[in-house]
Amino acid sequence: MSHANAPLSPTGRLRLARCVVEDGWSYRRAAERFQVSPPTAKRWADRYRQSGDAGMEDLSSRPHRCPAQTPTRTERRILKLRWTRRWGPDRIGSHLRLPASTVHKVLRRYKIARLAWLDRATGRSVRRYEHHAPGELVHVDVKKLGRIPDGGGHKMLGRTAGQKNTRRGKIGYWYLHNAVDDHSRVAYSEICADEKKETAAAFWRRAEAFFAGHGITVRRVLTDNGSCYRSLTFAEALGSVVHKRTRPYRPQTNGKVERFNRTLLEEWAYARLYLSDAERVAAYPGWLHHYNHHRGHTSLQGLPPISRVSATNLCGQYS
Fold first, then answer.
1. CB of 41 closer than 8 Å to CB of 34
2. C-beta separation of 273 from 156 below 8 A
3. What sign does the dihedral 34-39-43-48 (CA atoms) show?
4. First vs last Cα of the chain: how many Å apart?
5. Does the pTM of the predicted model rise above 0.85?
6. pLDDT digits (tens, 9 = 90+) for 127-183
7. Angle between helix 72-85 and 89-96 (nearest 10)
């Protein structure tokens, strides 16, 4: 296919070549007529003499030989290290004394999936899934977050002064209880003082009411195997909702809420410097509203999570 700025299409090249070869035009006259240079006119005329009409099509730009290409034996060593040790380009390059860029090109040439897309234990591609409607599965998890001492922590004051503030105040931790709908990615989250079974159960009752307010009926809940989720108190709070648990030591099974945990750390908890813990806590409701209603989500083609919930189901308090 001709590029966008090509002065001649294959049909125009054929007309030019026939003017030169069959009608006896000079290269200069043909070049002026078709508004190209004389060398270009000569090239297409020569191609017509050699190959006829077929010579007017674009040829592949692939070189006939690549003397600088990585040797096959080296490529095999790269692939072996990738599959047996799960190493990335930097580490493979250091081991084989090759530039990381070279290793990266070899892995791309053989269409090797990124490490982020693989299960490190088995080397298999991670299976992505998404339920077809809101409420079919809700991911629930707890994220532990250190509190900020009054006056600021080490990010604000530096390591030495920040640690002094931390030791002086014995500030402890917050526990962010999060629930993320699998289909829409709409999230409900609370900052709690602990992760006890009573707290988890009360959180779920409020989360279920939040989803119901958006017209979402929760059918299944997925959690890890934490003690609060294995309790009878949490089971009673779930009621008729089916409770599913992840396999031990497999947090990727609950990946959507794990990714939400990472997002809130990057975009709220550590996004800027806070002078106090109260300042950061006060900023959380606004960020959560932004996440649900305004922040574009890559898995939703850049739309916010609330876009996957029917507009007729939205409560005025969440608009």
1. yes
2. yes
3. positive
4. 49
5. no
6. 567 788 999 999 999 999 988 877 666 565 555 545 554 555 567 899 999 999 999
7. 130
